[in-house]
C-alpha cells in the first residue's frame, strides 16, 4: 500500500502525528552553541532540551542520515533528526532526498504510522520552498513506508485574542 501524503500549512509542532522530523545539521557543532531557530528552536522552546542532549550522543551524522530521540515535552512518540544541510550550511538535492529516505526508514523501523515533515532544506539550507516540497513528496511516493506522511509548509497562525473587544 503506498503512503498517504497530505500537504498542509501550519506549524509542524501542532500536527497530529506519531513522530516529527527535525531538519538538523551534521551534529558537528554542539547543539548548545547553536542559536535556536526554525524547527529546532521551536522544539527547544516548547519541548525542552532533552532531545538535543540525546542527539549529542550520536556524534557526527552522515549527510542525509537520520537519528531518533524522544520528543521531550512534546506530544509525539519521538523526533527523527535528519542531517539535511552540509558543512557549509547548504542543502542539496542529495541531502534532502537522502534525509527523507532515512527518516522514512527509521519511522518504519520504529513502527510509526504517521510522520510530520518540514520543508527540509528550505530554511537555512537555501533551497526554494517549492523545490524542497517537490523533492520530499517524490521521495515519499517512491518509499515503501505504508503510513501517513504530512508535509507541513510553515505558516504562522496569528492569535488575535489579545485584541478581542478592542476597536482597531
Summarize the structure.
This protein is of the alpha/beta class. It is built from four helices and six strands; from the N terminus they run ββααββαβαβ. It has a single domain, classed as Leucine Aminopeptidase, subunit E, domain 1.
What topology, given as strand order, has the largest sheet?
A: 1-6-5-2-4-3
Count of strand segments: 6
Q: List unreliable stretches of 5+ residues.
A: 160-168
Q: Considering DSSP H and I runs of 4 or more, what fraction of the residues is helical?
A: 25-40%
Which structural class fits the helix and strand makeup? alpha/beta
Counted up, domains total 1
The rounded distance between the terminal residues' Cα atoms is 52 Å
Assigned CATH superfamily: Leucine Aminopeptidase, subunit E, domain 1
CATH class: Alpha Beta
* Envelope shape: globular
Q: Give average pLDDT, whole number.
A: 88
| CATH architectural designation | 3-Layer(aba) Sandwich
Task: Characterise the protein shown here.
This protein is an alpha/beta fold and 168 residues long. It has a single domain (4-156), classed as 3-Layer(aba) Sandwich (Leucine Aminopeptidase, subunit E, domain 1), CATH 3.40.220. Helices cover 29% and strands 20% of the residues. It has helices spanning 38-47, 50-56, 93-109, 129-142; strands spanning 4-10, 19-24, 66-69, 78-83, 114-117, 148-154. The chain has a six-stranded mixed β-sheet, sandwiched between helices. Strand 3 and strand 4 (78-83) form a beta hairpin. Helix 3 (93-109) packs across helix 4. The longest helix is centred in the middle third of the chain and has 17 residues, at 93-109. Residues 160-168 have low confidence and may be disordered.
Amino acid at each position: 500500500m503506498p503512503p498517504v501524503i497530505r500537504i498542509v500549512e501550519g506549524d509542524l509542532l501542532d500536527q497530529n502525528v506519531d513522530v516529527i522530523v527535525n531538519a538538523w545539521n551534521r551534529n558537528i557543532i554542539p547543539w548548545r552553541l547553536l542559536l535556536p531557530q526554525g524547527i529546532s528552536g521551536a522544539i527547544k522552546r516548547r519541548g525542552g532540551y532533552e532531545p538535543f542532549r540525546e542527539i549529542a550522543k550520536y556524534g557526527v551524522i552522515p549527510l542525509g542520515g537520520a537519528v531518533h530521540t524522544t520528543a521531550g515535552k512534546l506530544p509525539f512518540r519521538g523526533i527523527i533528526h535528519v542531517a539535511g544541510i552540509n558543512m557549509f550550511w547548504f542543502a542539496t538535492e542529495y541531502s534532502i532526498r537522502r534525509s527523507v529516505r532515512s527518516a522514512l526508514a527509521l519511522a518504519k523501523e520504529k513502527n510509526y504510522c504517521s510522520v510530520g515533515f518540514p520543508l527540509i532544506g528550505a530554511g537555512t539550507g537555501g533551497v526554494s520552498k517549492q523545490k524542497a516540497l517537490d523533492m520530499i513528496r517524490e521521495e515519499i511516493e517512491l518509499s515503501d513506508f505504508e503510513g501517513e506522511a504530512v508535509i507541513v509548509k510553515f505558516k504562522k497562525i496569528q492569535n488575535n485574542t489579545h485584541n478581542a473587544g478592542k476597536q482597531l
